Amino acid sequence: MSRNLQIAIAALLLIAAAIAAWFILRKPAPPPEPQVAGMRLVPATFADLPDWKTSDARAALSAFRRSCAVIGKKSALSSMGGAGYAGTAGDWRGACAAAPSTSADAQTARRFFETWFVPVAVSSGDTKEGLFTGYYEPELKASRTRHGAYETPLYGLPPDLVMVDLASFAEILKKPDIPKERIAGRVVDHRLVPYPTHAQINAGALKDAPVLVYAEDPVAAFFLHIQGSGRVVLDDGTAIRLAFAGTNGRAYTAIGRTLIQRGELSRETVSLQSIRAWLEAHPKDAQGVMESNESFVFFQEEPMADPSLGANGSEGVPLTAEASLAVDQRMHALGTPVYLVADVPNGDGEEPFHRLLVAQDTGGAIRGAVRGDVYWGAGARAETIAGKMKARGTLFVLLPKPVAAALGSGKTYSP
C-alpha cells in the first residue's frame, strides 16, 4: 500500500471518528453552514413557461443526451441526488431512451420535452425570484517552462491533498443529517488539518504540487481560478484545456465584495470587467485583493477534443454554451432540464433570456434553490455577458411525468 493511500485512509478514519463524536456530544448541534431555505415545488404546465412555444430547445436536447449517458450508468434504484425530489435513475430511463437525435429540429425537440416531462415551479421560502449569474471559459497564454513574462504557476493536484465527501459517512454512522458538504485538508502528525490558503500557497506553502503551466498574466490566471476551467494557448502554439481538479477547501470570497468594502467599487459598478480593470490599474495592490479570496483551485490537463464544447462540469459531461446551468447540488439533481426566465446583458441594455438548460455543473458561490450560473462558452462575447450578468429570475425544473405526479402536495424539500 502506497504512503499516500495510507495517509488518505488514516484521514478518512479520523474524519469518521470526528463526525461520530460531533453527533454524540452536540448540545445542541451548530446550524449548518451556509443556511439554505426550504424549497417548494409546484407542478405547472408548459403554457406557464414564458416564450416556450417559440424557444429553441435543440442545444438543451444535446446537453440532455450527454447527461443521459451518465444517468444510464447508475443503478435503476439509485437516487438522482439533490434534495431527493427528482426520483431515481430508473425513473429517467424512459425519457433518455426516447430522446431524439441531435439533428432534430426545434419543433421536434420541444415536442419531446412536452411528451415526457412536466414543468415544476421552484420557490425558496416565500419567494419565487432568485439570482442568476453567468460564467465562461477564459482563454490565456502560458508556457510549459518558466521564462520571461511566464511567471504565474497553475498547479495540478498536490499529492497530500485529501478531499472528503461528508455525506458518504451518513450510512456508515447511521446519521442521515450529516451535511452534504465536501471538505479538504492534509494530514499532519496523524491529524487532518486545513489546507493552506491562497496567500500561503503564493508564499510557497506547496511542496510537491506539479506545475502544469506558467501563465503570462497573473490576473488572467486568477480569473481561471474563478471560472474553474479554461483554454490555454502555449508559447509553442499548442492549445490545451485546464479543467477543474479540486480546491484547497477554503471558502470562496468574491473579490468584488472586497473591493466594495474597501470603497474601490460600488455595488452598481462591480462586474468582471470593472474588477479586471481595477486589478490591472493597481498592480501593487492586486495580489492582496486577489488573495482575499482564500480559495485556490487545482487543475488537470485535458485535450481540446471539441472546441465547440466546454470542459466537463461536475456531472462529468462537457458543458454546452447557453444550455448548461450550474446549480446548488444539495438542492437539484444534475442532469435535470430546467427552464430559466431572466434577462441578460445586451450591449448597454438587457434582453429576455427564456431558455431551456440542463443542470450539469456546480459552483462554490451557487447556493439556494432559485440560484444558478449560466455557462456562456468561450470568447469575448461569452466573457462580456458572463461578467455583467446578475439577474433576478424564476426557475422551473422539468421532471418525468411519473416523478412529477409523486411530488408531495405542499411538501418542503431541504438539502
Q: Which ranges are low-confidence, i.e. pLDDT below 50, for 5 or more consecutive residues?
A: 12-36
User: Span from first to last CA?
Assistant: 37 Å
The percentage of residues in β strands lies in 25-35%
Which structural class best describes the helix and strand composition?
alpha+beta
Total strands: 18
The succession of helices and strands, N to C, reads HEHHHEEEEEHEEHEHEEHHHEEEEEHEHE
Would you tell me the overall average pLDDT? 88
Shape descriptor: globular
| Number of DSSP helical runs | 12
Walkthrough of the structure:
Helix content is 27%, strand content 28%. The radius of gyration is 22 Å and the shape is globular. The chain has 12 helices and 18 strands. Strands 3-16-13-15-14-17 form a 6-stranded mixed barrel. The protein has a 6-stranded mixed beta sheet with strand order 5-9-4-10-11-12, with helices on one face. A 3-stranded antiparallel beta sheet has the order 6-7-8. Helix 9 (272-281) crosses helix 10.
In short:
By secondary structure, the chain is α+β, with helices and mostly antiparallel strands.
Write the layout of secondary structure elements.
Layout: H1 3-25, E1 39-43, H2 58-71, H3 93-98, H4 106-116, E2 117-124, E3 130-137, E4 139-143, E5 152-155, E6 162-165, H5 170-173, E7 182-188, E8 191-194, H6 198-202, E9 211-215, H7 218-227, E10 230-234, E11 239-247, H8 255-261, H9 272-281, H10 283-290, E12 297-302, E13 324-326, E14 337-346, E15 349-361, E16 371-378, H11 380-388, E17 390-400, H12 401-405, E18 412-413
Helix pairs in contact: 9-10
